[in-house]
Amino acid sequence: MHSLVGMSGNLSTGKCIGSDAPLLDSLLVTQHNHQIREVVSVGWKAPSAPWLKVNSNDSVIGNHGACGGLFRDHLGNFLGAFTCNLGISFVFTVEVHSFILAMEYAAQNGWTNIWLESDSTSALLVFKNRSLVPDLLRNGWHNACSLGIHIISSHIFREGNCYADKLANMGHSVHGAVWLSTLPLDLQAEFYSRRCGMPRYR
Q1: Is the dihedral of CA 113, 181, 124, 131 positive or negative?
Q2: Same domain (yes/no): 113, 21
Q3: What's this model's pTM, rounded to 2 decimal places?
């Protein structure tokens, strides 16, 4: 009986918990433990002055695209945000379009040092290789890059880009591009908890 239990236990692909270890050892059954993913703390980091940080994101539902972005200074203060309905679009095109809008809004507000963060590693490659910019956006990209803005770009995990994600989703319910000079109510609780250093986890 003991050997049958041990043999069937060793063939099992089921997972055990730590408290089962003594019993399994007594039956000579190899333990199969759950693999625990490393939990990563994701937080938004303020830029150093005089840089301003803008987090941007896209949202595509079906084939309908929208994007959004949020500007903050080196103290984490809200400076403004945008949301935009782009109509029929592809994901990559929408993300690049959000970069163009971020640069245009920065220029309109006289902000010349912009640190752009996105959770799309593929879209961020356009800052290194402009040939990746979709054909339909080439003219807009060229014009935005001619506005005299200094750009730093970096990746952030989606959990740290939640405001931009919500702004992008809001874009589905607006017409064209909309500038927001006050923080939307839906974002306030999370905005201030992140500003106080409360992290998110992935």
Answers
A1: negative
A2: no
A3: 0.76
Residues 30 and 55 in one domain: no
The answer on 113 and 32 residing in a single domain is no
Is residue 90 classed exposed, middle or buried when 0-12, 13-18 and 19+ CB atoms within 10 A define those classes?
A: middle
Note whether 85 and 31 are same-domain residues: no
What are 85-125's pLDDT values in tens digits? 999 999 999 999 999 999 999 999 999 999 999 989 999 99
DSSP letters of the chain?
-HHHHHHHHHH----B-GGGHHHHHHTTPPP-BPPPPPP-EE---PPPTT-EEEEEEEEEETTEEEEEEEEE-TT--EEEEEEEEEEE--HHHHHHHHHHHHHHHHHHTT--EEEEEES-HHHHGGGT-GGGS-GGGHHHHHHHHTS--EEEEEE--GGG-HHHHHHHHHGGGSSSEEEESS--HHHHHHHHHHHTT--EE-
The per-residue pLDDT for range 44-75, each reduced to its tens digit, is: 788 888 999 999 999 999 899 999 999 999 98
d(C-alpha 112, C-alpha 106), whole Å? 7
Shared domain for 23 and 62, answered yes or no, is no
> For the chain, how many structural domains are there in total?
2
Residues 6+ apart with CB under 8 A from 193: none
Range of the domain at 3: 1-36
